[in-house]
Design a protein that fits this description.
Distance between the termini: 19 Å
Number of strands: 3
Length: 67
């Protein structure tokens, strides 16, 4: 059976953590900041952990990276 290919779009957007979770950038960070508070903008800057309900799906997409 052939090897599974890594989904390259997902590989560019998500990084695997040491314990097996995934981290990614936040949504709502590209424009229209005048409607957001300073606190919202500050908290959107960093990376956030992916919700555990999505981890199984993305582990499959990133099959060659996730080992």
């Amino acid at each position: 059976m052939p090897k599974m290919k890594t989904n390259r779009a997902a590989a560019k957007r998500f990084k695997r953590t040491g314990k097996g979770g995934f981290k990614s950038g936040n949504a709502y960070t590209s424009h229209r900041f005048h409607g957001k508070t300073k606190k919202q903008r500050r908290q959107l800057r960093g990376l956030s952990m992916m919700d555990h309900t999505n981890v199984k799906r993305y582990r499959k997409m990133l099959s060659t990276i996730s080992k």
